[in-house]
Prior knowledge:
Layout lengths: L1 H39 L1 H32 L7 H48 L7 H15 L1
Helix pairs in contact: 2-3, 3-4
Pfam families: THH1_TOM1-3_dom
Subcellular location: Vacuole membrane
Keywords: Membrane, Transmembrane, Transmembrane helix, Vacuole
Amino acid sequence: MALSSSLSTKGFIWFKYIADAQSFTGGVSLLNGWWDRINESQEWQEDTFYALCAAYGLVCLIALVQLVRIQMRVPEYGWTTQKVFHLMNFVVNGCKVLDMILLDLPGLLFFSTYTLLVLFWAEIYHQARSLPTDKLRPTYFIINGIVYFLQ
């Protein structure tokens, strides 16, 4: 009897730790399931990528504004630690945004190439029919500008 009561007392302490570990494991499996759903979702990955790119762009812009403000206020000090810090923030975060632009650049250039071909044939058609061609090029630039902005 004394042996079983001492085991139950000792077991009681370990039960607490085992119960905590099981509840923790359940929480981890819940998080793993959530992460797996997000990891397999292309939409979530794209949205996260664009949100991070926007955040990096914002930090890049703020760093550039701060660098210009400091330089305009005290140009006589040269390159201080603060100015170098803002310059490096601008460059690093700007490179991350540039990475996104470079990933999209081949598709955008493909679009521009073939819209340029359409512009070429539209100019030939308009010249053959003696129609004005003055609005074709601005239309080309507007359409490409909208597509580049949206992309």
